[in-house]
Design a protein that fits this description.
Elements: E1 7-10, H1 12-18, H2 24-32, E2 35-38, E3 48-53, E4 60-65, E5 70-74, H3 76-79, H4 90-102, E6 108-110, H5 112-120, E7 131-136, H6 142-152, E8 159-164, E9 169-171, H7 172-175, E10 181-184, E11 189-192
Parallel strand pairs: 7-8
Antiparallel strand pairs: 1-2, 1-5, 2-3, 3-4, 6-7, 8-9, 10-11
Length: 200
């Protein structure tokens, strides 16, 4: 089973046969760079929810692919070991280097346009991009979260950490405010006062 934010290298020919009504930009995108990102949602061997990235933020396409059409997978945590020089923007390289030092005791990895660029070798970031990342569940207090955000705010790029728990995801920036979070699960969103113990 694949997890949200994993990047899948796909058999483009097979995916296009299964999804013949894709927008032309989406067809062109995966033909040029055969990677898609796993989305939130229930997935099984025959139906993995994924997203196709285009050249702009408005170009996003949601489809499903079969496990048989997946040729490789890269998780955010695997991408964390990538060389910063795989990123084209100098401030992205500097931010990546600083994060490796600041988060050295945590299990984390880049996502979003950062992860896509590291995995594919195709430039996906621009001067306005955030540096998205995923941090695996590690309990900390609101005070500790606030301290960490203060450190992350010193990087050249805006860093937007998403915390992954056993039950879902939430933004570190929201948690650091101490007012609850919008908790993301595989099937939806819910407001949580304590994201470490989500209600069911």
């Amino acid at each position: 089973m694949y997890n949200p934010h994993d990047l899948l290298r796909i058999d483009v020919t097979s995916v296009l046969k299964r999804n013949g009504d894709l927008p032309l930009w989406a067809q062109s995108s995966i033909q040029k760079t055969p990677y898609v990102v796993v989305r939130r949602g229930v997935n099984d061997r025959f139906s993995i929810p994924v997203g196709i990235r285009g050249a702009s933020r408005s170009e996003r396409c949601a489809i499903t692919v079969s496990c048989d059409h997946v040729q490789g997978v890269l998780t955010p945590y695997e991408l964390q070991t990538s060389e910063s020089t795989r990123l084209r923007l100098k401030k992205a390289q500097e931010t990546f280097g600083m994060l490796k030092e600041l988060l050295r005791s945590m299990h984390w990895g880049p996502t979003g346009s950062v992860g896509f660029e590291l995995a594919s070798g195709t430039q996906a970031m621009n001067e306005q991009s955030d540096f998205d990342l995923l941090i695996q569940s590690q309990w900390f207090s609101v005070t500790e979260a606030n301290d960490l955000m203060n450190q992350l705010n010193k990087t050249p790029m805006t860093v937007d950490p998403l915390i992954q728990t056993e039950n879902g995801w939430f933004l570190l920036r929201e948690y650091a405010l101490g007012k609850g979070v919008l908790f993301k699960t595989m099937t939806g969103l819910e407001l949580q006062g304590d994201p470490w113990r989500p209600s069911h």
